[in-house]
Fold:
Amino acid sequence: QVRLVESGGGLVQAGGSLRLSCTASEFTFSGYVLSWYRQGPGKERELVASVGSTNGSTNYLDSVKGRFTIFRDNGKNTMFLEMKTLQPEDTAVYYCKAWSVDNVFWGQGTQVTVSS
Structure:
């Protein structure tokens, strides 16, 4: 069964750091665009960061630029989101997504809570 599993969420104080991981099973990451989304309390889901399938190009939500870094390890079928200088407004459920022309897969989400 195809699965994406996120991990690494938790409770952190403002200014702290977390690293989220997303690991795939039953399919290989290469060839897929990989993204992190988040959905805060009472908010719509938003795209946080993406990394391309071929050249590794990245793009970020303006509010996380300079603080978050997305990167992938195709050999380990894992994607990461390094988050630094976290703020209370970063509190959300974070989801990973892998998509190609033919398929879209979502993880189940991992909670990130930033206390002030």
Observations:
- Residues 29 and 105 are 11 Å apart (CA to CA).
- The mean pLDDT is 95.
- The longest strand covers residues 18-25.
